[in-house]
Design brief:
Blueprint (H helix, E strand, L loop, with lengths): L1 H30 L4 H21 L5 H21 L2 H9 L5 H19 L1 H9 L10 H25 L5 H17 L6 H34 L4 H27 L9 H27 L6 H7 L1 H36 L10 H18 L1 H9 L6 H20 L6 H30 L8 H6 L5 H33 L1
Amino acid sequence: MAQNDFEPRHLETLDRDLGRFSNLEKATAYVARPTVAPGIAFVFIMLAGLAAALFFGQTSNTLVVVVAAIFGAYMALNIGANDVANNMGPAVGANALTMGGAIAIAVVFESAGALIAGGDVVKTISKGIVAPESIETSSVFVWAMMAALLSSALWVNLATWIGAPVSTTHSVVGGVMGAGIASAGFAAVNWATMGTIAASWVISPLLGGLIAAAFLWFIKARVIYRDDKIAAARVWVPVLVGIMAGAFAAYLSLKGLKHLVKITFPMALLIGLVGGVATWAAMIPVIRRQSRGLENRNKSLKVLFGIPLVVSAALLSFAHGANDVANAVGPLAAIVQASGSGEIGGDVSIPHWVMVIGAFGISFGLFLFGPKLIRMVGSQITKLNPMRAYCVALSAALTVIVASWLGLPVSSTHIAVGAVFGVGFFREWDSERRLKMSRVASPERPNLAPEERRRRKLVRRNHFMTIIAAWVITVPAAALMSAVIFYAIRAVAA
C-alpha cells in the first residue's frame, strides 16, 4: 500500500519537473523570434554598460570602460549562441535532454564555471598574447583591446548567423593578435605563447576525438558486444559515472576551493579519487533499479546512459564556463585595469562585475540564440545515441578541464566537435571491421559498390570540410578585422 501511495506522488513530481522544462522550451522558442531575441539582447548589453558606469566610478576614463563593457557583453552573448552548442548538442541530439532541459542545465553550470573557476585563463588572454610593455601608452593598449573585443564578437556573430560552429577562442586570440600588430608591430606579439596556443588548437581536437573514440570502443567491447548486455552495463556504467565525477571533484577542488583553503595537486587528486569511488558506489543500486525488466538489446542501454549523459553535459558546461569566459572578459579586464590605474604591464585583477557580465552574457546568448547550432552539432554531423553522446561529452569535459587548469585558452569548439568526429569516424572504422569479419565468415556475400560504400559513411563529409575551413579562416579574419577597427578607433580618438 505504501508503494502504491508513493508512485502517484512520484509521478506527479516528475510531471511538474517535465512541465517546467517544457515551459522553458516554449519560452526559448518565443524569444527566438526575429524581433524579441535581439531586443532582449540589446537590453542586456545596455545594462552591462550601466553596471560598468556604476562600479567603475566617475573618472575621465568612465566612457571608455562603459563602451568596453558593452563590447564585452556583446561578445559574451555570441559565445553563448555559438560555443555552448558544442556542449549541449550531443545530449539534445541523442534525445537524452529536451532543448529546454539542456538550456536550464547550461545556464546554471556555465555561470558557475565562469564565476568560480574562470580567472586563470582570463589572465592568459588579457596579457599573455601581446606584451603590454611594447605598446606606447595605456590609451593605445585600451584601443587595441577594444578592437579585439569588437572584431571577435562581430566574427562570431556572423558565423552564428550562417550556422558555422567556429571557435570563439580563435576569434578573440586572432583579434588580440591583429590589434597588437596594428598598434606596435609584429614584435608586440608573444610568438612563443601563440605557438603554444596554436599547437593546442591542433592537439585538442585530436585528443578529444581519440578520448571519445577510446571510451566508445570500451563501451562497445565491454557492454554492447556482450551476450548479456544488461549485466555488463550494471558493472561498467557506474564505473564510467565514477570517472566523470572524480574528474569534476578534482577540478572543482583545485579551482573553486583554493579561494577558501590551500589545496595542492596531490590533495585534489585524492579528493577526486574519493569522489569518484563514492559516486561509483552510489550509482550501483541506481543502475540496478533502472535495468530491471529491460530487454537484452542495444536500445535498452539508452535508458542506463541517461543519467551519465546529463551529468556529463553539466560537467562540460562548467568547464566551458571556466575556460571561455576569458574570451569575453579577458580584454575587458585589461581595459578596466589600464583605465583605472594607467598600468598595462602589471598583474591583471578581475573585478567581480566583469566576471558577472561574462557569465550572464554567455547564459543569455544560449537562451536567446543557441538552439540553432545545438541542433546542428547534435544531429547533422553524425548520428548520436546516449552512449555516443556520453563519450563526446566526457571526452570534451576532460580535455577542457585539463586545459583550463593549465591556463591554456584552447578552443572548446575544437575539442567538442573533434570528439563528435572521433565518435563518427570510430563508428565507420568499427563498421568496416565488422563487415570484413562477416565476409570472412560468409565469403559468398557480395561486395558493396563504391557508390553504396560512400553513401553509408557515418560522418557527413560536407560538414567536416566546412567546419575545418571555418577553423582555418577564423584567426586571420578576426586579426584583419581587428587591425581595421583599431585604425578606425585611433583615427576617431586622436
